[in-house]
Amino acid sequence: MHHGYLTIQQPGPLSTLQDGGRFGVRRLGVTQGGPADLHAWAWANWLLGNPWGSPALEITLGGLTLSAEQPCTLALCGADMQARRNEQPLPNWRAFELNAGDTLTLSMARLGVRAYLAVVGGFIAEKVLGSTSCVVRDGLGGHQGDGSALAAGDRLAFAPTTQTIPDRHLPTGVIPDYNAEPRLALIPGAQFRFFDDHSLIHAFRQPWRLDPRSDRMGIRLQGSLLHCSMDSMISEGIALGAVQVPPDGQPIVLLNDRQTIGGYPRLGTLTPLACARLAQCRPGQPLWLTTSTASEAQQEYRAFRAQF
Question: Which band of pLDDT confidence, cut at 50, 70 and 90, is reported for residue 1?
Answer without folding.
Answer: low
